[in-house]
Write a structure and sequence with these properties.
The complex is a heterodimer of chains A (1077) and B (364). Chain A has 1077 residues and is α/β, with parallel strands linked by helices. Chain A contains 36 helices and 38 strands. In chain A, the strands form seven sheets. In chain A, strands 14-13-10-11-12-15-16 form a seven-stranded antiparallel beta sheet, with helices on both faces. In chain A, α35 links the parallel β37 and β38. About 1% of the residues of chain A have low confidence. Chain B is an alpha/beta fold. Chain B contains eight helices and 23 strands. In chain B, the strands form five sheets. Chain B has a ten-stranded mixed beta sheet, with helices on both faces. The chains are: A alpha/beta (1077), B alpha/beta (364). At the A-B interface, α9 and α16 of A face α3, β19 and β20 of B.
Chain lengths: 1077, 364
Amino acid sequence: MIDKNIKKVIVLGSGALKIGEAGEFDYSGSQALKALKEENIETILINPNIATIQTSTDIADRIYFLPVTPFFVEQVIIKEKPDGILLAFGGQTALNCGVALFRNGILEKYNVKVLGTPVQSIIDTEDREIFSGKLAEIDVLTPRSIACLNMEEAFAAVKIVGYPIIIRAAYTLGGLGSGFCANDEELESLASKAFTYSPQILVEESIKGWKEVEYEVVRDRFNNCITVCNMENFDPLGIHTGESIVVAPSQTLSNSEYHKLRALAIKIIRHIGIVGECNVQYALDPHSEDYRVIEVNARLSRSSALASKATGYPLAFVAAKLGLGYGLHQLNNQVTKVTTAAFEPALDYIVCKIPRWDLNKFSGVSKNLGSSMKSVGEIMSIGRSFEEAIQKGIRMVGIGMHGFVANKEEITIEQIDEELIHPTDRRIFAIAEAFNKGYSVDEIYEKTKIDRWFLQKLQNIHVTKNKLEEVNSLQSLDDSLLLQAKKEGYSDFQIARLVLKSSNKEINGDLMKVREWRKSKNILPSVKQIDTLAGEYPAQTNYLYLTYNGNEHDIEFPRDNKSVIVLGSGAYRIGSSVEFDWCSVNAITTIHKENYRSIMINYNPETVSTDYDTCDRLYFDELTFERVMDIVDLEVPKGVVLSMGGQIPNNLAMKLHRQNVPILGTSPLNIDRAEDRKKFSSLCDTLGIDQPRWSELTTIEDIYTFVDEVGFPVLIRPSYVLSGAAMNVVSNRDQLEHFLNLAANVSKEHPVVVSEFIEQAKEIEIDAVAKNGEVVAYAISEHVEFAGVHSGDATIVFPPQKLYVETIRRIKKIAKQIAKELNITGPFNMQLLAKDNDIKVIECNLRASRSFPFVSKVMKYNLIEIATQVMLDAPFQSPDKSLFELDYVGVKAPQFSFARLLNADPVLGVDMSSTGEVGCIGENFYEAILKSMLSVGYTIPKKNILISSGPARSKVELIQSAKLLSERGFNLFATGGTQTFLSDNGIESTRVYWPDETDKHPNTLELIKEKKIDLVINIPKDHTSREISNGYTIRRSAIDYSIPLITNARVASAFIYAFCKYKIEDLSIKSWDEYKD
Amino acid sequence: MTQLRKVKLILEDGTTFEGKSFGYEKSVAGEVVFYTAMTGYPESLTDPSYTGQILVSTFPLIGNYGVPSDSKEQGLYEFYESDKIHISGLIVSDYSFEYSHWNAIKSLGDWLKENKVPGLFGIDTRALTKIIRVKGSLLGKIEFEDEVIDFYDPNQENLVAIASTDKVEVYGNGEHRVVLVDCGVKYNIIRCLLDRNATVIVVPWDYDFSGEDFDGIFLSNGPGDPALCDATVENIRKTMAVEKPIMGICLGNQLLARAAGAETYKLKFGHRSHNQPVLLQGTDRCFITSQNHGFAVDTKTLPEDWEPLFTNVNDQTNEGIRHKTKPFFSTQFHPEAASGPVDTEFLFDDFIQNVVEYKRTKKK
């Protein structure tokens, strides 16, 4: 039945998480690897993303932490001699790489068979012109569109198509370089940018305002086809589907529309010849059955991951099996086990996907949503009414909102209109405010073109809010109104705020009153299963959600003290992504191995932790106090693990503790002592551990007094925040005042602190596990950058290469003291500064950190496994090796997504801005950092390097590497000060002029635009500066014209040394298991 | 919004659900069945095969796109499957009082009221479905407080006689003359034939059509137990002797099987959905089909010269039969869809091809 000659297969991963390509590919890749493994096929994975689940030993047989580029993949092919390759499971990165390998004849040369969809089919869908032509052959409509290779052609095309138009760049991730144009001016600016990403752009008719609908289609080699799921965008066409709220299944399509588009999807997949899975995106006229096909993705996608989670149908797993030659009807439904995979799931619930944006983290970025993607993560909520799903979903996004209503949101009418017409990430709240201001559904529809059905449902929530506000006590709250509110997804918090009019201070107590009240009225949620067949067949499924639109549970609760709940990490966001999913999954796996039933709570559709195969029970539901308590009440678990999912679960520690929920690991009281800066500081004082001087904000005067004492710059930040939201370094009084305001808005419950900011200090991390206060395992790593760059944006080396033994000894001692004092049981992480023999603690988290997967994999010792065993009080094995004994080095490098964030200043600071990371292993630091940086998109410059080296310190820092570049024959181009400095030091360079010196040549901007530069090194003078400056223009242009950019002198220096030392051919092609200690 | 009346759904096993009324306020009794389709309530509600049944929608959100216009084309309602709502009652979880669609003219609730059919919402339809799954389809009644009624078993009655037409009607003017035995036909079967250049002569279920001038026979879908349609079975037997092409759908499949000498039986809870996989006998071709039936053909009882045409991949039940040598075939699923997937509409082409072939050989 299947091709028995395929014994060894290479799977390409998607590399670091970036906007448009995130955790969904860890999920799809892991599923594919599992499917291959089940067939006893040896699997080779190439993926530098060390924090993923797929790059774990038990998932793939061999793993290469190498860039997913044709060069490295070819090297691995030469070495491994695989029979087949899978290209469809690692996003656009893998697909582009696969197409290149096919075109270069590499696959043919080494006789590597592409499993699943043939490469020609991929090319047919990727090249827009071929694609439109292909669909025209079968009379399927696509938007009128003309492919253009230059600006002249673009202007000629628009004469045919007519404004408004949309510009699209071929072969790009998630709509990069795309946008709407209404006139020549807009076309000029957008098209020139699009040409920098792609040699070909498309000028298309605009169908803005149409409904946007997607289908996930599967085809096997017998030509059998199914559509697993369709999805409808809440936001009409004009907003990228990755930026849209999406529901599944479609809600406003009639049977005729649904099946017309479904039949077209099948016609298309057959014609293109896909074997596996593809996604078809449509625009549907809201006033007729007219349609256009917008896009076909011949691979697993973000939408397919969502569809898998929305339906329980494992698309990636099935697609991999079909690639091996199976027919759909020969595979089992993974949920029911008794029915076949050749079916279309019937849902008896609705899911809602909402994107998560972190636009506030970037200075200068445009917040308007459009045809390119800016969101960094997403959530999926499940309910049995739209109202329930959307309110759950809004909470899940994790931006401090409590649902559609009852938020502290006040905007003026002008702002409402502007938001409705030109949406930003806050549009849904503008709709809520519009209802408050008396707008009708029709008025909102006219401005947004969001289908009235969605708006009517939102209005229902609004109407209920008004009813709740009229009530002033729980005693006078009608049971039926309370139940209706819960059915519409109202949280106890919202009800407390609306009925009890609770202040922020009272709310935590008041929501407990609501909870107790409704429990006394027996108004409780029901647990329902997701079974793919809407209850038609009995399913032993463990895939669950809670709803108030039901009155019985689908499952039973053994309550035998043998279950352990792990709280996941929620939406991927800047500062919390796949690393915490790795931790959660490893905790779950360990819990299972230790013979407990593992229960996962998480709601991120892009993760492996929300794969129902991973755990004994999956609650795809909220991580709010209320929902966690609901589940704890039902399950009565042995304990709850809070330390794996980052800050979201960590923040629940005290609240759960107060309800006597058994928390495994370190006591919440001690978690609080570490989280609360004041308590932690006095703890450090007691132990004699140094910290940068700091003070808590009580009055502005006190702050000034404090700043006078320590001097600028100072760091200001609120407590209880991950990845430094609202954290900033300020250099003068104006800035200080401005940022104190910002910070105070983030979290009023917790005070804002100001601390001394130490410059030129080394930053060091320790990831460790302790049991009953004794450290049992640890890993120390160092940052390449000096302190001041957020640890999530830092380039991290493990084991440390440049630390004094004395420093390490003292760090170990500090970790031991703190572990003892806080009686830590489980994982913890500390960040420290080392300068002039002084060591200061800057942060201590009693939970797993972002770097746990990296250090665990480099030292081949799973810190999460041991941490989980420790928390379960199970036997564990302490590491018998010291970190100095490793014969190799790991380097973790950040991935930035600035190219997608229009106008954002690509500069690093204390606030995190990277969207992902990679970790590569090398024989030494330079080999490892070179592999890492190549993995995140840097290329070794051929000839020309532009340097503006910023402040004196970085000029000095860069002098040796500049000399090296000069010796190696690179052409250096330098701005004024840098050129003088280089010249003074005997290094030859060409003087170039600042962007605003437009009349002087050569001008930096010209060189960048003409792509004469291979690498831009631009060190900002003042990393707090927000003003548009020459430096900004250079940095931004480098990003916009896709030229590698480095903004940190120490990283620049390390990269230069690395590529001067190693040619790309010299880099070792070694799998993870070949690095032995 | 006016105060909504509370209503009870009472099952024969005593289980009671309480919901609120959004349809006509009248107590009704019937057989409670669930369907798992996610679209197409206007089509399903007007499907005569649902005669006598209280329909439970497993998809919770119903009424979203209202009810389409009542325009007619070639004498048939364009957007309905018959001239009225055939279900006895509708049970949903979440009803959309407001609707939104370019083609809608009224709300589902108003349409139910016009057709005097009650509708309930606020029911845990998943819990209800699980009861039916475990116990099989059972009798139930929608009861308003002031109107107590008895249970009623529609399967005791010849529902086909109720759903069928009482006169011969001719649609279209195509070159292929097809007699359509109306056991409760869905309009889309007629549309599919008209689209293929047929003249469709719709006749009552027990009509002796042997005197008509026709090139092929079409056996429609319909409600209830095929064992109660002996008159139709007799007429089919007569025509089989002439060897004119026959195609049947759903009840038509069961009647053709009975005419061939096979047996039919009642399924535990039937297939009522848009996602049933069927495998074409002897191939690896698998199709997703729309279904609505409570009875099935017992494949084992098929006589020697007949064979299964399609089989359900999930539960191995019969999904169609064909004669080994003669142009007779039928499907248990609905190739005409409406509502549901249209993947097997090509079977109408096969039927017409048989008709063409028949006419060609007849000329010789």
